[in-house]
Amino acid sequence: MTLPTEPRKVRADARQNLDALLTAARTVFARSGVDAPAREIATEAGVGVGTLYRHFPNRAELVAAVFTSEIDATAAAAAELLAEHPPKEALDLWITRFTRFVATKQGLSDALRSGDPAFDALPALLMGKLGPALASLLDAAAASGDIRDDVDPLELLQAVGDLSHRAPSPDGTPNPMVRLLLDGLRTR
Amino acid sequence: MTLPTEPRKVRADARQNLDALLTAARTVFARSGVDAPAREIATEAGVGVGTLYRHFPNRAELVAAVFTSEIDATAAAAAELLAEHPPKEALDLWITRFTRFVATKQGLSDALRSGDPAFDALPALLMGKLGPALASLLDAAAASGDIRDDVDPLELLQAVGDLSHRAPSPDGTPNPMVRLLLDGLRTR
Amino acid sequence: MTLPTEPRKVRADARQNLDALLTAARTVFARSGVDAPAREIATEAGVGVGTLYRHFPNRAELVAAVFTSEIDATAAAAAELLAEHPPKEALDLWITRFTRFVATKQGLSDALRSGDPAFDALPALLMGKLGPALASLLDAAAASGDIRDDVDPLELLQAVGDLSHRAPSPDGTPNPMVRLLLDGLRTR
Amino acid sequence: MTLPTEPRKVRADARQNLDALLTAARTVFARSGVDAPAREIATEAGVGVGTLYRHFPNRAELVAAVFTSEIDATAAAAAELLAEHPPKEALDLWITRFTRFVATKQGLSDALRSGDPAFDALPALLMGKLGPALASLLDAAAASGDIRDDVDPLELLQAVGDLSHRAPSPDGTPNPMVRLLLDGLRTR
DNA sequence: CATGAATGAGCGTTCATTCAT
DNA sequence: TATGAATGAACGCTCATTCAT
Fold first, then answer.
1. Residue C63: CATH number of its domain
2. For the range D75-82, what are the long-range contacts, defined as Cβ-Cβ under 8 Å and sequence gap of 24 or more?
């Protein structure tokens, strides 16, 4: 140790640590699920537990931080798809995208329904951001007569989530059951 | 050691304990989920933990034992329903029944996908018994032209399971998303 | 197997462990106060922490167990002293005895007023047993006109306790301040 | 105060921080006791923990600094009371004042006897300043024949302290046990 | 000088599992 | 065979304290 150099170490590396933590959390969540031991994440990030707790006083905040950017991007995609595609197509494409998001997030859906109070804030986060996005797509598709108009976006969101946590389907296509569900939406 | 003899007496009390354990496990699983503490189950059964471990060296065996009879009954119902109802109706009724089974089994579906090696044997159990049952229903309904013929019974089983662990819906009716899924099965 | 020997090891050494724990707790309480780490006590007793928790699910119960027998003995002494000595003398002797008890219990009085919910049950234990004992002595001494009759036994008990946790006074005599307090009790 | 030292600039801001820390510590000590987390105090003062540690390398120094002015004032009151009241009355009044001081200092007395080396310097501080003050009162009262002359002021100080940390008695009156103790002082 | 991010030991507590009886 | 006491690893979390900036 005590190398003469090292532009390394502290400074504004609070930021560095935060990044390291987010990255580590993403990795660990994927490997061991969202309720992996706090220490495992801290170690993976190369920091002490205290540092983890400093940045994220509770689990939900960490999970939220890890997924927030992707959630935002997914929500934003709704408007874009709607602008560039016919309603039902936009809906299907968005579901595909959402499906991919969920499939990647090993353990996210488990956490959502774990009932563990540590995750209480999570559903609100997801539903709050993605619910309206999906609602806009459903409204448009219903308006154009492609699908029925009695579908609760939140329920659908959960359902697709429940169906997608399996089978990360390498090509990114939603799995057959999701497609079946989408078929069920159609007006007959 | 391993004497070839004694096909006999299972020691009445051993049998009693086993029954007590199964009953207790059912109760506790319903109350606290399938990964409730081992001791909680033993206590509920009025036996020592050691006894629990003697009869069920690992969790999956206990879970399997607990659900086996119900699984069998559910599987058996397929033939009955098929005998008494038109194919598609039989299918819907059976799904309803299965739905109720899952909704009742607090934590079963979580366990199934927990990845925990303790539960490795479970999916095979369920799929092995219920898969064929559902397959027979699907075949009949497809043969009568009511539904498409490209649905994998195992996938459908899992899907309905995934959608049903929510909302125990007091009247026993499958929730809206399951109905949507069933709608998607229809030929168009 | 069933070798005829070794009366050693386990068996009813739950009892042995319990004794070891009580002894250890007494030692550790004396050394480090009643909120010494649980592990310290377990280690001192030569058992695992789990064993400590098995026997005493919470701190107050351990503390209570450690002190109960002595508390009982102290309470019982009141009647005896009253039978063999004039009231005021009995009172003084009992206070002396109580004083010795407290002085020995390093940290007991700290615990009593720590406000820590872990010790919530303790005051009731002490006051419940010793309060009536002291009350009987005060009543007798007041009846004989030796002391005033407006002294709350519980307050006095606490006061003597507060004054006695200091200065274990090797000869077992109450310290000067306790004597002053007792003087204050006298009718004038 | 009135130290003959440092006639030089104390860096106005350093002084400000110090004041802020003292005020904050007083507040926090009152709210959470003297072993409140260091960070809580620093935050309350609006400074970083580092600053706290710079000014007060250990807890006792902080506690000492916080209470010093009040201790001084209390000590000074002895002479004033003695000048304006008969000896025994002055003594009682001073005790009342001291009693109030202690009752206000949530946790001070606990700290004093915690044995924690962090507080080693505290007793000397208190005793050093208040001991002589009380001694002067005791001497006067003893000289006038009102009280006995064999009372150790330090012991009495501790005793009153021990009895006063309870029952902050809203009207500022010493509690009954303190009054009993004072009664015990009287010549008979 | 001040800051506050970082560290990591340490605590209470739970539970799966073993094994002497 | 049944029992349940014992074990101890593991976890979440808190803070005193240091030190790079």
1. 1.10.357.10
2. D75/D129, D75/D130, D75/D132, D75/D133, D76/D133, D77/D133, D78/D133, D78/D134, D78/D136, D78/D137, D79/D133, D79/D136, D81/D137, D82/D136, D82/D137, D82/D140
Structure-model confidence comparison of residues C152 and A109, the more confident one: C152
> Looking at the complex, does the CB of residue B31 fall below 8 Å from at least one CB of chain A?
no
CB pairs under 8 A between C and D: 66
Residue A103, pLDDT score: 78
Question: Are the C-beta atoms of B81 and B94 separated by less than 8 Å?
Answer: yes
Q: Which residues of D touch C188 (CB under 8 A)?
A: 183, 186, 188
Report the nearest residue to nucleotide E6, CA vs C1': A51
Residues C93 and C175 grouped into a single domain: yes
Between the ranges A132-141, B123-132, C64-73, C92-101, where is the mean pLDDT highest? A132-141
Mean pLDDT comparison of A38-52, A109-123, C63-77, highest-scoring range: A38-52
Report how far residue D159's alpha carbon sits from residue B142's, in angstroms, rounded to the nearest whole number.
92
Asked if A162 lies within 8 A of B158 by C-beta distance, the reply is no
Mutating which of D112, D181, D188 best tests the C interface, going by the most C Cβ atoms within 10 A?
D181
Please, do chains B and D touch (3+ CB pairs < 8 Å)? no
Report chain C residues whose CB lies below 8 A from the CB of D34. Answer: none
Distance set, CA D98 to CA C181, D7, D71, D76 (Å)? 18, 33, 9, 12
**Residue D118's pLDDT is what?**
66
Q: Quick one: A86 and A171 in the same domain? A: yes
| Mean pLDDT in residue range C94-116 | 78
B window 136-155, beta carbon within 8 A of A: 151-152, 155
CB-closest option in B113, B179, B181 to A177 = B181
Residue located via tokens 């003893």: D142
Q: Which residues of chain D have pLDDT under 70?
A: 1-12, 106, 110, 113-118, 166-170, 172
Same domain, D39 and D75: no
- Residues D49 and D111 both lie in one domain: no
- Report the nucleotide nearest the CA of residue A12, measured to C1': F21
Question: Both A46 and A133 in a single domain?
Answer: no
Round to a whole number and report the distance in Å from the CA of A10 to the C1' of F19.
10
- Give residue-wise pLDDT tens across range C22-68: 999 999 988 888 889 999 999 999 999 999 999 999 888 898 888 88
The percentage of residues in chain C with a pLDDT greater than 70, rounded to a whole number, is 85
Of B20, B41, B57, which marks where a domain is finished? B57
Q: Rounded CA gap, C177 and C145, in Å?
A: 23
Residue-wise pLDDT for A11-32, tens only, equals: 667 788 899 999 999 999 888 8
Query: Distance, angstroms, CA A166 to C1' F14?
Result: 38
Residue-level pLDDT at A114: 65
More confident residue, D124 or C72: C72
Instruction: Provide the residue range defining the domain that includes B30.
Output: 10-57
3-state secondary structure A72-105: HHHHHHHHHHHHHCCHHHHHHHHHHHHHHHHHHC
The verdict on C53 and C66 lying in the same domain is no
| Count of domains for chain D | 2
Which of residues 56-95 of A have CB within 7 Å of strand F?
Answer: 57-59
10-residue averages of pLDDT along chain B (188 residues): 46 78 90 88 93 90 86 93 95 92 76 68 82 95 93 91 74 83 89
Instruction: Tell me the average pLDDT across A57-61.
Output: 88
Q: Could you check: is the Cβ of residue C14 within 7 Å of any atom of nucleic acid strand F?
A: yes
| Chain C nearest CA to D173, separation (Å) | 16
- Name the closest nucleotide to B49, judged by C1' and CA: F4
Q: Which residues on neighbouring strands pair with residue B2, listed in sequence order?
A: none
Supply C11's token pair: 């068996």
Q: Is B147 helix (H, G, I), strand (E, B) or coil?
A: strand
Q: Which residue is nearest to nucleotide E15 (CA to C1')?
A: B37
